[in-house]
Amino acid sequence: MAMQKRRPIIFAHRGASAYAPENTLAAFELAIQQGSDLVELDAKLTKDGRVVIIHDLTVDRTTDGSGRVADLTFDELRKFNASFQFKDQFPDQKIPTLEEVLELCKGKIRINIELTNYFSPFDQLAVEVSRIINHYHVQEEVIVSAFHPIPLNKFHALSPEVQIAFLARKGWQGYLSRSWLGRILVPFDAFHPEKSDVTPELIAKARKTGCPVHAFTVKEAQEIKKLISLGVDGLFTPDPLLAQWEIETFQPDNS
Predict the structure, then answer these.
(1) Quick check: is 13 catalytic?
(2) What is the pTM of this model?
(3) What residue ranges define each of the domains in the chain, with the CATH number in brackets?
(4) Which of 55, 148, 192, 214 does the annotation list as catalytic?
(5) 156 part of the active site
């Protein structure tokens, strides 16, 4: 396998979430300090239409509250502590808004915003994300991604100047996204496959169209080494420091 000629970029998955509570300002600030190239985050709408940053459909796993994000108002969500597994190091973290993240990151680090309205693809999430990005004038500092083509195309129609990326689920669930149909479904600027689906053939196909391939989500050194050797353009990882180390010390197998 040939070593790729340029360094893969590092997406801090939900921030530097190996070291700080995921999808919080603390995790995003730490990702900046650790030298990540981008932070990745998950956008959802509250009951009253605010864009907040949280991965799950419910708050149960990552906060001390309970309930579906879509069934809770912004004020109700802000009462919860989102410190997750890092209560000693980061004792009081709130579910942030997209506005707060942009205020923190603008001019410091690029942001990958995933639209996660997979069970309500016709809602106003794409509209609100587009509005907020335009308000903060960060069109060149963000990538907007999704697994679902409907919200991604809706966003693209509103903000065609912003880069978009198409996510592909693992295995057979992401087959259509990885096939030629993916380009018909979404006119994407970057492709984000699950790590186990990255092959030399997938990379070669992407190279022909000039489309960067950013693989998710890697946590182990051997996974990082393998993806570097395959020639990926970027890595999603909760551990930016590990990724940096493996990229800097990578030695290609020329056998």
Answers:
(1) yes
(2) 0.93
(3) 9-196 (3.20.20.190)
(4) 55
(5) no
